Write the structure tokens for this entry.
Amino acid sequence: MEGAPAAPHPISASVQPASAGDYQQLEAENSGRRIRAAVRIYTNASLNVAGQDWRNGDRLVWDKAPMPGEYMLVGVSPWQSAVIPHYRYLAVLLTE
């Protein structure tokens, strides 16, 4: 059904804290709205980013410190090197 949440789909990825520059970029793109937490996700999986192709972004369920929770993918950059081509995604913590 269109608009219904998809079933969880495990992927292999490296998840790291976002940099200070990432936070500045995200806050600038969101009219200065404060971002509580953000992460970088490195993977070769093709994921949906919020706002691209009229789709909702995929979500990452992250249970690790310092800020466990559900993160929405909001940005992507291809990292297509000759060694290991992959993508770098930015995701922000969803607040209730």
About this structure: The two ends are 25 Å apart (CA to CA).
